[in-house]
Amino acid sequence: MHRLPTSAKSAFSRCTTVADHEQAADRGDTPSEGTHTRSEDPPDVEHELKQVQRTWRRRQLRRLVVVVGLLATVVYTATWLGFDLGYLWEHRGNLQSVLLEEMLVPSELLAEFQGDGPALGWAAIETLAIAAVGTAIGLPLAFCLGVLAAGNVTPRPVHGPLRLLLGTIRAVPSMVYALLFVILAGLGPVAGVLAIAMGTIGDLGRLFADEMEEIDPRPVEAVMSTGAGLLATTWAARRPQVTTAYVAWTLFYLELNARKSSVLGIVGAGGIGYPLIMAFNARNYTRVMAAILIILVLVVAVEAVATLLRDALDADRRAARD
């Protein structure tokens, strides 16, 4: 037999390899890379799975430690405060006797409403007036301070101190403001109005600032490109984006102020809180229950009206959008 030359063998081998690759391509198979290329080792799936499991166990252990720590802190704090379920259970009869024998007796409640109903009704009206006037006084200041305290409206030297001011105002409870304003204005609803106004400035101002910082900056940039100043830009580009949210927060805070003003009378700041605390000090629990029922009706009525106004506002906004 005649042996092929080396060059012929190499050419034949290359032709065979090319033919094999073309056949593999026709079959849809991935062609091999040749005998001189080492195939990559498959990933160690089992090792990766064990690593994921260990990470998951550590994460779950940390969460369990945090939950157990929080529960232990709550239990210790409750014990330090003297919270004892056994003591409360042993003395449950005291509350039952007051509720069933004095506060929830229909005939006595009816007699209380017939005798003191007009006085309690006027106190409820005064409570609503305190909430409304206090909100109306605090709202403009809350709007101005809230807009100026937004980081996308004013520079840091302006919005930083204003944020601190709003936080300081919010830190003082309305009851403390009522005590201070009783010294200034004396006993009566004026102190309650001022206390509600201060709370409105702090809380609504902070909410307004947060809402202003969430607006879309593109309309603002478009208006500023025309050379408009801060006031014109805020009115034309920023205000339309926050109007709905501002109205919703104002209505919500009006509901909250109605609840606050119902107890400000405890410190002499007017409203239905004053007859409530006087009845409690006199151990007249029937009158206490009558005042509580009137407060409940007042708060529910304010909430219902605020919900209707919000629904009407949403309907107008959807109609304008369509």
From TrEMBL:
Which stretches are tagged as biased composition: Basic and acidic residues? Answer: 19-47
Entry keywords, A to Z = Cell membrane, Membrane, Transmembrane, Transmembrane helix, Transport
Report which residue ranges the record marks as coiled coil. Answer: none
Alphabetical list of CDD domains matching this protein: TM_PBP2
One example GO MF annotation: ABC-type phosphonate transporter activity
Question: Is Transit peptide found in the keyword set?
Answer: no
Residues forming the ABC transmembrane type-1 domain are: 124-306
Start-end of Polar residues biased regions: 7-16
Superkingdom of the source species = Archaea
Task: Outline the segment boundaries, as ranges, of region: Disordered.
Answer: 1-47
Localization of this protein:
Cell membrane
Please verify whether the record's keywords include Cytoplasm.
Answer: no
Q: What is its main location?
A: membrane
One GO cellular component assignment for this chain's record is:
plasma membrane
Q: What transmembrane ranges does the database entry give?
A: 64-83, 128-150, 263-282, 288-309
- Topology relative to the membrane: Multi-pass membrane protein
> Which InterPro entries does UniProt cross-reference here?
MetI-like, MetI-like_sf, PhnE/PtxC
PROSITE patterns xref list: ABC_TM1
| Family classification | Belongs to the binding-protein-dependent transport system permease family.
Q: What is the protein name stated in its UniProt record?
A: Phosphonate transport system permease protein
What organism is listed for this UniProt entry?
A: Halorubrum vacuolatum
